[in-house]
Amino acid sequence: MRLTFHDFVAVERELGRRSLKHYARMAWPLLEPATPLSWGWALDAMCDHLQAVTEGKIHRLLMNVPPGMMKSLLVNVIWPTWEWIDRPHLRYISTAHKQDLAVRDNMKCRRLIESQWYQTRWPLKLTGDQNAKTKFENVKTGFREAMAFTSMTGSRGDRVMLDDPLSVDDAHSAAALKAAETTFLEALPTRVNNDNSAIVVIMQRLHEKDTSGLILSKDFGYVHLCLPMEFEPDRRCTTSIGFTDPRTEAGELLFPERFSRKAVDALKLSLGSYGTAGQLQQRPAPAGGGLFKSEWWRYVSVAPRCQYRVIYADTAQKDKEQNDYSVFECWGRTYEGQIVLLDVLRGKWQAPELLTQARAFWSKHKAVDNGTLRQMKIEDKSSGTGLIQQLQRGDREKGHDPIPVAGIPRDRDKISRAYDTTPHIEAGSVLLLTGQPWLSDYLAEFAAFPNGAHDDMIDPTMDAVAEMLGKPVNDFSGIM
């Protein structure tokens, strides 16, 4: 028995209604008629997690995927039009780092609904009085509205879709990162209708402080689907709906149907180590470090004898959680011409406690017999300026002698200073003590630099390298 056109439509109608994966395959030719569809298990995984949102199994979803995974089409175009088959009352807020991108997907979504293909299978009329590029409604009270992420105002939705809240350029802008954080924490939660509403964030990783980093650092209840371009067994993704990354071999490709080994290698060459780490592998820092390679570090289990020691400090402007730490590092210059990090003190303190910690750290190392403790050096800026003045004055009434302290003027950017530092570390001139409680955090900061959430332990190290290795051993100019 041959199927008639009406039979074919009926089959498509039911298959499409039941499964987002089937619907996506059927809708593709209408959205990209000139491009053959490539499909793989990664797209199945994305669809399964979106369908789990529809079924109420997930209310907060974070998906980190490489570029080229048709993420915008799936999340912002295909999924909403599929949900409207049985749930035409749902209201959507779609946002991206640029309003133009959100509007682009709004228009695609509207064209798909108005297409003969969609209307033949799932008739749904749009209203005539609200049918614009930025917002359109249907006759069942559902609507879809597009806006820029950092300008989220007005409407509330049953679904808030956040697609790439940051551009690649934004990743190196402290102001852009802060604006995205503020919007996510303060504006976005007010755009959902109720407890049953869902937020879906889909993006590539760009920085440890990007929106994904913020979500992952807090207990916001997000299901995290993370799909790196090349498989890393120690980062295998497993989620609450029973998904596990099916790959078995390190380096196995995510989507070979679309991105061959040759294509991926070309992308890696073009993106560089940091672009590859974030955009392809979904971790902001390259494996083994970026500017500071993990294999460069040299370790000692016992502190070597030192000619002299200096404490270098970097103080934060505020003591709140989102701000950087204040850090004190004690460095020694060895008789072999190397420098060794002997101790680190790191915390978030207000001005009185910061002064107490600085004095205690100085006293602790003044009592150590391993070369003269010559000086404390602090960045002469913000809270550091006041600390310098207080340490220089001392407080005789309370038994605090003046401490030989000097300010450090930093008139060059961190990246330039880092490039001056790396040759000394690579050459084995910088030693680290094993078994120290601060060591893992210290190494993690260097591995993530310059895309890390914190770099407070890096600045004093760069100061130490510049002054203790950048001058002859007998040059103590500026040392009190």
Going across the biggest sheet, name each strand in turn: 3-4-5-2-6-7-1-8
Radius of gyration: 28 Å
Q: What is the SS-derived class?
A: alpha/beta
Averaging pLDDT over every residue, what do you get?
89
Global outline: elongated
Q: Tell me how many strands there are.
A: 15
The main β sheet shows up as:
8 strands, mixed
Second CATH tier, the architecture of the largest domain: 3-Layer(aba) Sandwich
Which residues sit in consecutive blocks of at least 5 with pLDDT less than 50?
Answer: 471-480
User: Helical segment tally?
Assistant: 14
Beginning-to-end CA distance, first to last residue: 98 Å
Beta-strand share of residues:
15-25%
Measured as a percent range, the helix fraction is 25-40%
Secondary-structure element order, N to C: HHHEHEHHEEEEHEHEHEEEEHEHEHEHH
Number of domains: 2
**Fold-level CATH name of the largest domain:** Rossmann fold
